[in-house]
Amino acid sequence: MSDEEWERFLRESVAGAAGAPVEPSARAREVERRLRERPGQPEGWRTYAPARPRRRTGWYVTGLVAAVALLAVGLFPQQVVGWFGGDDGQDGAPLAAESQRPQEAPGAEPGLRPTLAEPFRGSPAARWDDGAAGITVPPAQATGWMDAAQVERALRQSRDFLVATGLDPRVLRGERPTKAIALLNPHQKDVQDYLRTALTSTAPAPGADPLLLFSRFRPEQARLVGDVVKTRGRLTYREGKRGAVEVTADVTFVYPVTPAGDGGPDAEVVRTIARRKVVMSWDDPAKVVTEPGTMSLVSYALDMTNGGCSAPTGYFVPPFGTAKKQSADQAHQVDPYDRSKPIDTSNGTMTTGSDCATATRS
Q1: What is the DSSP secondary structure assignment for residue 244, as one 8-state letter?
Q2: Structural domain boundaries of the chain?
Q3: Would you say 245 and 146 are in contact if contact means Cβ atoms under 8 Å apart?
């Protein structure tokens, strides 16, 4: 071999000959094998793929059920309470203020009798407001001879009259209704004659019965259970005769009472229910003889349940001990909580007894 050929042989041994086959490395052979076994794009050897979360179907179902339950409570609270037993309607949401005459009577309540601890149990009155809060007073606008501020004052004093006649604790115990009388026009002769006769006679005539205006119980016969009287009603007003502001009150009072004396924890509780409609005229002193801050009575009427069925005595007479002796007169029944109908003045009373209408509930 010549020197030139030997030198070329040595160079090619080090650098490799052009076109000579190249033996793949061990890593290259491993990658090629994996590609043949698992086609598709290979994962990088330093890439990270997080684990896929498990589906928690149970939680989704629970959330859906809870949402449906909340919707049902919002739309039908009373029915939902009934499904789970409730507590006799005592936890029902308070009713919105009465701004107009209802279209129908209140729905049926659980037929449970009142107790000393829960005197309004089983009654629609359980959802009524307490005392004066249950008497709705409308917004005042200038009417007749009064501007808006004067109308507002007349409405406030009209409600004060209802409080003084139907909620004053002293009047409820049979005392003289001095606060109410102070709001009456002393120059209205027929009303002054009525007051004189009604509050002094021991056996007033039906037309002179003080119960037409005032709620009264004999302390020796009955006492209120607690200090809450439930009310529901409203005032309305319009321009009356000679430019007067005529205010009409239509209010139902519910009085839970028990026999006087200590009857123990199981003492009987009766609810006396009185609905009154009173029309009051706040007259223009330039046209009618009156006194500042007083009004004239246009009319007054009463419906009552469990307040007495015999001749007037001037006091409510709850029918204690007659809960199981109600009249079976199906043709003459009344619902004392139904405020959708005009007040009934045909007989002056609506109560349980042999000579009176039968109350469907109390």
Answers
A1: -
A2: 114-359
A3: yes
